[in-house]
Amino acid sequence: MRKRRFARRLLCLLFLFCQAIGCQTFGGGQELTVLVRDAETKAPIATAEVYLCQRLKQDEVAPCRSMGLTQADGIARLRAEPVGEHGMQVQAVAQGYLPEKLNLPAEALKKTTARSSHQSAKQRPVDALVEVYREPDFRVELVLPPGYRGLVKAEVQLLDTLPLPQGQRCFRFPVSASGDVLVKGPSLLRRVPPPEFRARYGDGPLLSTTMDAQTVGFRWLKGVGNQHLFVVGNQLDYEALHRQVAPEETQAAFGAVDDPAWAGRSHKYRYGKITAPNYEPK
Length: 282
Hints:
The protein has two domains: 22-132, Carboxypeptidase-like, regulatory domain (Immunoglobulin-like), CATH 2.60.40; 139-254, no CATH class. 15% of the residues lie in helices and 30% in strands. It has three helices and 14 strands. The protein has a four-stranded antiparallel β-sheet with strand order 3-2-5-6.
């Protein structure tokens, strides 16, 4: 009898514990299932770290308080607090892949919860699909005519209709003798903002973004819409062209390697351990 009473009490405690955990999940007990797979081969990725964060106004994200690892099928199951008015953001990082994030609107999450409220975790389709690309980073390189110095005028055309050749990460575009270049490629190249474009002469080494009185480098100068200006030259060349093209800007901008508007927008988390930068475990 004593053993039976003990067993019943233990079951009651386990039931209450499960209920307490369920209060922190979507839709009063529902998990959020996330599939992480290779964007090009479509193969599921195991042991990827998946983080779930509340979205705040504009592009801000609250500290991630829910984290899970994908299994062999590429699926991770996460718990989180109730959905806020701005929805959630899923972040995925995997060894050998570029980090990726996916914004989930609040309305879509509410529909997902309503649709899956009567299904078990195994019966439900995945709630979010995150596709990640293998390293290295995407990059854009401008190929300069021999000995060219002066302004480079780039027109950027990134189209959803252009496919990404599998495995290609470096995209090179020739600059004409007059300094004009058309950067036309797949929409994924939006991951490379113009201030991060690089340049080289033919098959030579990449030019540095650091300039001084002697060193010839390559640096973004100004951009409006899809039109961007770059300078090939030394620091004196850059300052002269800066005064000519953007006289309204201050002298303080001359020493800047990148436009301040792009500061902190790197699309790759550069940490020793692959972890979302704002993850805060409970």
